[in-house]
Amino acid sequence: MTAEPPSAFAYLGPAGTYHDEAARAFAKRLGIDDPQLIECPSLSEVFDCVDRGKCEYGVVATENALEGPVTATLDNFAFRSSATILGEHVLDIHHCLIMHPEATLNDVKTVASHPQGLAQCRRYLNDNLHGIPTVTVASTADSARRAASDKSVAGIGNDFAAQLYGARVAETGIEDHFGNQTSFALIGRQGHVPVLTGSKFKTSLALFLQADRPGALLMILSEFAYAGINLVKIQSRPTKQALGDYMFFVDIEGSTQDLEVQTALNCLRLKLREVKVLGSYPVE
Ligand SMILES: O=C(O)C(=O)C[C@]1(C(=O)O)C=C[C@@H](O)C=C1
User: ACT domain spans which residues (predicted)?
Assistant: First the structure.
């Protein structure tokens, strides 16, 4: 087997997903004209490709404006992967209803898409395809591919995927809110050198408590407040150890190169079970 070229990008495939679009946008920002894109069937496999050095970069969705955090990505960062975040990119997400070229709405017996695609079009489906069962598939592009070969399946994805697989766009802009956006992280293997520059930086952290006790969250927030650091995001996720046991994802302004960030992190390391730095990267 030949090794992948070092600048390859692993992404949730097949071609035509929003991850594909985000990977191309990152490649452009890195000045890579003809990027090598490696399709993966799941987000965990994108992380594996990067952690095992099969690809230099990976692209993973982190959060959607309508549905919130992409939990598969957060769990990989917290519990499986040692990858580092090198950058972020926000995409506008405008979904289409995708059908077989000869199908009409009467032919449709199931609507397939990625769980996020289905969730982001809930209202449209309720109003226009009420009672038609939905099935989840690995990605929106996968749903376009299925729709292209089966009159009874409608997919939800972008117009590029519809075109790529020879399907028809039956309706555009079917997402429940026009401001629908998803943010993506560019990841590299632990210790990867920074690849994007900018004037303002952000640092993402995964914080694990020693024990659940009164004031634990207040203590974390206080360390950032004492150091004069602005928080941009805080999210909790179950530790998967016991019901009601949580860890926290925190995004702060600044970089690990900044003295005040180093001070806050050193103080937190004394009080927490683990402070996992997921990466410092320029704000888009
Ligand atoms: O299925 C795709 O096209 C994807 O890239 C996945 C994904 C996601 O993980 O949220 C990406 C962006 C949109 O929010 C919908 C789906």
Answer: 205-282
